[in-house]
Design brief:
By secondary structure, the protein is an alpha+beta fold. It has helices spanning 44-57, 62-88, 95-110, 194-202; strands at residues 2-10, 17-18, 30-32, 41-42, 128-131, 134-136, 146-157, 160-171, 176-184, 223-227.
């Protein structure tokens, strides 16, 4: 199975919210996500979510359109195979169930897009990208990983402004994470260029427009991605 290896470097503080293990008055209010060893990590869901938004924004890209058509053809073929299988046991399947299966295929075919790279509901074996958590690259000392940052939140209560300081434990700039994305059964789509398209989409993080985690308005979440 093909895989795309990623190296992600934080260019600003990075905050991916996690539940604090305890509450201390005057202590840290918000903690970034960490693993079992108390090292920061970038959850697969965070990377997947932003990359999906990037690819959604690239829907007019020629390769994105080609991928959408490939998925449409893939599900048309799958539907035909399914119909042939149903015909063999037609006397054992209720008409309502048969109609439901047909409607599900029709909806999936009609809505086909490059976003199907992230999975298609009800079709777990369809070609897709499989994401893994990104972990801290070996060789970085724990004291170099975190930053404590204070920000004010402004509330309006009865027309009065009230500043409430919040303390964040974030990933500091310059921390390097590594991981990979698996290309699951992509050969079934029968087209070339999917890997290159995903790699190009990943590099859109380097524009500074797309950010990871929360508090982007505070300047958090800028990263650089290198594809290996």
């Amino acid at each position: 199975m093909e895989r795309i290896k990623i190296e992600l470097t934080t260019l600003s503080n990075l905050f991916i919210g996690d539940t604090p293990s305890s509450f201390e008055i005057g202590g840290i209010d918000q903690y970034t996500k960490t693993d079992f060893y108390n090292k920061p990590l970038v959850p697969a869901s965070s990377l997947k979510g932003v990359l999906r938004r990037i690819i959604s924004d690239m829907e007019t890209d020629g390769t994105a359109e080609e991928i959408a058509k490939a998925y449409k053809d893939y599900f048309k073929d799958l539907k035909e195979k399914n119909i042939r299988n149903l015909e063999k046991v037609a006397d054992k399947i209720e008409p309502e169930r048969k109609k439901g299966i047909n409607d599900r295929f029709e909806k999936t075919i009609e809505e086909a897009s490059a976003e199907y790279l992230f999975g298609v509901q009800g079709f777990n074996d369809a070609p897709k990208l499989i994401f893994n958590d990104l972990v801290v690259k070996e060789g970085q000392e724990e004291r170099e990983l975190f930053s404590i940052d204070s920000k004010n939140r402004i509330d309006v209560v009865e027309d009065q402004l009230s500043a409430k300081p919040r303390t964040y434990k974030t990933v500091r700039p310059g921390v390097v994470f590594t991981g990979d994305i698996l290309l699951y059964r992509m050969e079934r789509l029968g087209i070339k260029g999917i890997r290159e398209f995903v790699e190009k989409s990943l590099l859109e993080f380097n524009s500074g427009i797309y950010r990871l985690g929360g508090s982007g308005s505070r300047g958090y979440g800028r990263v650089r991605i290198d594809v290996r």
